[in-house]
Amino acid sequence: MKNNLSNIKKAKIILDKHDCIAIPTETVYGLAANAYSNNAVKKIFKLKKRPKHNPLIVHYSNLGDLKKDCHINDNFLKIFKKFSPGPITYILNLKKNSKISKLVTNKKKTLAVRFPKHTLTKKLLNLLNYPLAAPSANISSRVSCVCSKDVKNEFGNKIKFVLDGGRSLIGLESTIISLTGKPKILRLGGLEPSKINKLLKKNLKLKLIASKNFFPGQMKLHYSPGIPLRLNVSKPKNNEAYLLLKKKGKYNKNFYYLSNKGNLKEVAKNLYYTLRKIKKLKFKSIAVEKIKNQGIGKTINDRLLRASKYHG
Ligand code: TXA
Ligand code: MG
Questions:
Q1: pLDDT surpassing 70 at residue 220
Q2: Domain 4-206: CATH superfamily, name plus number
Q3: pTM beyond 0.70
């Protein structure tokens, strides 16, 4: 506990100097910097090798702060009250007098905002007098990191500090909902659209593939472990790492179980962690067992499908 507090203070000192650090969230780790500072935001793009046209998510700890930067509406308030803090990102209209750096949004008039639930990051946000721009803490187009060790491996000594908050509980990124017009889902994630449908009493449209590939989270190839990945495999090849839903059959050293008994939440939590582990072990390819397209299984399949577009 004492350690956490001194780490949060250390994080604040670095952020106040307009540098980037990694922060834990319940979805995945984020590469964070002062969203009001051009200098700080520039460092995120550089470190992540992120194309400048790809806007960032800004993280807040409370509604009052958000209202300084964005226009809110009834749909937002309804969803916010029920599901934030948590694994959901809202696209809202930016206020004209907002202090958000133009580099965050690539001069667009909308902003992606999120209220993370992780205790350390909530505490950190409460100490700061600016919100945190934070994309997932990985080099662009790769698999997100769900633990501090993976972030350190990803960036080496280029990253000044990683606030260690243990393994991310959800293990997949947030769901993105656009609320600037008719509500629609832009990215599947940790919160199932069916839960939002129930709350709003309507069937939200899914718009998961961008026209002109504008938003990379919607790109056909993304979330890639950097080696080929095959889906719906019942017989893996020799030397292939094989990801299975649950423990069964004889032990095989190339088999990796994503859960004990097939619980999809557990599968989600272990997916990116296991993909990174397999890559480190120098496997040349990955085969994945069929995963039920239900609940969070839809997000898992969305990510696996995009990862499977990698062909070396
Ligand atoms: O769980 C998460 O959302 C994590 C944690 C760290 O919060 N963050 C994350 O950020 O996944 P990132 O940058 O890896 O993915 C954000 C996605 C990108 O695909 C980006 O194009 C999209 O959000 N995005 C950002 N601003 C947008 C906007 N104004 N309109 C539509 N999409 C936007
Ligand atoms: Mg990302």
A1: no
A2: DHBP synthase (3.90.870.10)
A3: yes
